[in-house]
Amino acid sequence: MSDHDNAHDIQKSVKRYLFVFYALIAGTILTVMASRLPIESVALTVAIALLIACVKGFLVAGYFMHLISEKKMIYGILIATVFFFAGLMFLTVWSMDHNSLIHMAPNVP
Amino acid sequence: MDIPYTSTPRPDTGLFNAKVGIWLFLASEVMLFGALFPSYILLRVGAAPGDWPHGLLNVWLGMTNTIVLIVSSITVVMAWASLKMKDFGKFRKYQSVTLLCALCFLGIKSYEYHDKFTHYEVQLNDGTTVQVKDDKGTSDVQLKSNGVLDGHILERDADKLVIHGEIVDKAAQAKVTHAWQASEIPEVEITVKKADIKYMENYGPWHNTYTAIYFTLTGLHALHVIGGSIVIFFIWGPLAGMWKTDPERYTNRVEVSGLFWHFVDLVWIFLFPVLYLL
Q: What SS3 class is residue B129?
C-alpha cells in the first residue's frame, strides 16, 4: 500500500477496489453456475472451478493486498513461499504416481 | 532508545517493520494451509468410487459466506483508504461493517456445523422394514442386507426414530460425481424401530475422511476469522486514541491487520469450490 500515499492516488484506487469487488461477486456467482452445468468430465469441472478461484485470488492479492505494486523484498519473500509450496504440491503428485505404480505392479508370489 | 522504522519505511527496503513481519507471517500461513490442501487431494484421490460424499454441504450457505467475506474485504481496504484520506469517521464505519461481516460468517458457519452434528448415517439390521412417507403417501419398504438411512432426525422416542432423508442406494451413490447430482436425490420421511438399528453416527469430524478434512480446514479457517476479528476490533476500539497521537503508525497497523484479513478471504476463495462444489 506504500505507493498510494497521496489522497488523489487513493481516490483513484477506490474506484479500482470497487471494480474488483464487483468482479469478485460476479466470479462467485459464476463458480456456482458453472458447478451446476451438466459436465460429465470431473477433471474439467475441477479445472473450471479452480481457474475461477485463481482469477479471484489474483484480484484479492493483486489489488486488495496491493501485490501488483509492492516492494522487491515482499516479492522475494513470496517467491521463496511459492518455491516451497510448489515443492509440497510436487511431492503430493509424485507420491500419487508412486502409489499407482505400486498398485499396478504384478503380484509376486 | 526507540525502535526504528515502526512507522516510517526503511530507506533500503522501503518497508516499515510490521509490513515485513506480516508478509513473513503470511508466508508461513501459506505453508500451513499449503500442507492441508495436498492432504485433501490425497484423501480425495485415494477414496474408492462412491466413498467420497458429494452435495453434503449447502451450496447457498457457502456462497453467502463467500459473499460476506468479499464484502468484509472491500470494507477493510476502504477503511484503510479512509485513513489515508484523513477521514477517521468513515474508517470506523467501514470497520464496523467488517466486524459485522465476521460475526455473520461465524454465525453461518456455526449453523452449518450444527447441521452436520445433527445429520446421521443409520445402519440397519438385515431385512429391516421401514415406513416411508413421501408426496404419494405412506408405504412399508423392506431393506435387504446392509440397509443404510441418511438424514436428519425429526423425532426420537423410546422405540422409534423418524428421519428426514433417504434410503442409501450404494450403486446409485457410486455414480454420483458432482455435487448437483446429489442434490437431485429426493428426500422422504422414514420411520424405523430402534431395535432395528445396528449402528448410527453423526457427520462429525470422526465420521469419514471427508468430514475430517472438512472440519480441519474450515475449523482452522474459522480460527483465523476469530483471530483477525479480535485484532481489527482492538484497533477499531481500544487503540483508536493512537490516531490522535501517531496517525501514521495507526494507519500502518490498520494496513497490516487488513493484509491478514485479505489472506483469510483468499483462503476461503479456494475452500469454497473445493469443499462445497466439487
A: strand
For residue A65, give the nearest of B84, B262, B272 by CB distance.
B262
Residue, of B28 and A96, whose pLDDT is higher = B28
What predicted TM-score, i.e. pTM, was given to this entire model? 0.89
Whole-angstrom CA distances from B222 to A68, A98, B254, B264 are 28, 34, 21, 9
The grid coordinates listed for B6 are: 515502526
CATH code: domain B22-117+206-277 is 1.20.120.80
pLDDT, tens digit (0-9, with 9 covering 90-100), for A57-108: 999 999 999 999 899 999 999 999 999 999 988 888 887 776 555 555 555 5
Q: Which residue of A has its CA nearest to B257?
A: A65
CB contact under 8 A, A35 and B9: no
Class (C level, CATH) for B120-202: mainly beta
Q: Give how far B259 is from chain A: nearest CA, Å.
A: 6
User: Three cell numbers at B234?
Assistant: 482492538
Q: CATH 1.20.120.80: which residues of chain B?
A: 22-117+206-277
* pLDDT score of B12: 87
ipTM entry: 0.88
All residues of chain B having their beta carbon less than 8 Å from the beta carbon of residue A98 are none
Amino acid at the residue B238: P
8 Å CB contact of B38 and A13:
no
Contact across the interface for A46 and B278, Cβ inside 8 Å: yes
Tens of pLDDT, residues B33-64: 999 988 888 888 888 777 788 888 999 999 99
CB atoms closer than 10 angstroms to residue B5:
16
> Which residue spans of chain B are classified as CATH 2.30.30?
120-202
Give the N- to C-terminal CA distance of chain B in Å, as an integer: 56
